[in-house]
Predict the 3D structure of the following.
Amino acid sequence: MTLASPSAALRGSILRDTQAGPGLISVAGRQFSFTLEQHWRSERPPTVGARVDVQLNGDELAGVALVDDAQLAKEMASQAAGQVAAHGQQLLGRALAEFGKAPLVALGALWLGWFAFAWISVRIIGTQTVSFSFWDMVKLLSAGNALEAMQYGQGGFGFWNVVALACALAPLLPLVWRDRRASFGLAAPLLFMLLQAARLYWGIQSAAGEMQKQMGGLGNPMGRAMQDIGGQMLDAMLKSISLGLGLYLSVAAALVLGFSALVRLRR
């Protein structure tokens, strides 16, 4: 029985180089001796562990050549991509069996709505606007003054961003935790959005109250006039805010996920 047809190419590896006599390669579960003069087909010398293309003529070794580094890297990348695709397909199959199509589509829409699309746009000067995704807004809410944060783009990664990431992945919890309570993970994005909406509302109310309090501290009637001006400034700032696609997409997706959690918990 032969390993391959005449002149067929197989992939092997070098077990011993030719510095102290014939080299040794392993291919298709067998070992072959080779020499530089008779078998080696590359300009670079053989090194232990290198991958090689092996030409066999029946059961006889016909030639050995180093595999090009670029080709080897391409093959490794292709193999890794194939493994990732296989695992991804397996995970998708498990997710479809666990949730069905609608919650998975909703989860994808939620991620787009949170991280890719704008939730609000704020008009700064004339037609110049600044847009914020939900992820950006979570960072802005950590800046303290919600109005100033939106106006000047302040804020940074903090505790609430970590919670946001956890809530974005929470709907996948039933895939790794086989417990009825894992279904609550599907409702996590909706609950988190409601919490952040409450934080935003109270932040704006607090900032507005502080602004009017400072302007009203000048005494009457100047105080009342400054309060009116402060109220007008607040109204103008709120009117400069427009809602974006990300908000509507996120709300719709979170409602679908929340409904799915309710259905699963009532089974």
